[in-house]
Amino acid sequence: MAKKEEKGGGGAINLLLDNTIALQKTLTTIAAELKVLNSKVSGLLALFEEASKSFKEGKPRAVTAIPPDLTAKMEGLVRQNKTIARGLLLLEKTIRESKETKQAPEGYKPKPLPEFSF
User: How far apart are CA 51 and CA 44, in angstroms?
Assistant: First the structure.
């Protein structure tokens, strides 16, 4: 014989049970992920503590030489910057000279700009 379901109450209870089980599964997953996260944060904390101890002890770090290809690139950039600076100085000098030769003739008074009221 089939069981008779109670009207209105049986479906709600089953839905509540399903939701509770799903919630428990989710909470279990979150707890496991928090455990992994906690272990990673502990490792990071240990790394910072080790770095702090090393910094307090003042251990000298090994000085590494600058790679030759990087040195060559930097020298090229310095030369390029010097060339650009020379060009800008010459341009500025040319503009100043052209302004001096194109000065307004004597006795010329420029007209004032019109005034606007807003």
Answer: 11
Cα gap 105→103, rounded to integer Å: 6
Look up residue 28 and give its DSSP letter: H
Would you state the structure tokens that stand for residue 82, as one six-digit string? 């010097």
Q: Does the predicted model carry a pTM greater than 0.85? A: no
Pairs from 71-74 (Cβ < 8 Å, separation ≥ 24): none
Could you tell me if 110 and 104 are in contact, meaning their C-beta atoms sit under 8 angstroms apart? yes
Q: How far apart are the first and last CA of the chain?
A: 94
Residues 5, 13: contact at Cβ < 8 Å?
A: no
**Mean pLDDT in residue range 38-49:** 94
Q: What confidence score (pLDDT) does residue 54 get?
A: 83
**Structure tokens given for 15:** 């839905």
Helical spans, DSSP H, in 8-67: 9-57
Kindly state the DSSP code that residue 5 receives in the 8-state scheme. Answer: P
- How far apart CA 13 and CA 7 sit, in angstroms, is 11
* 107 phi/psi in degrees, rounded to 5: 85, -5
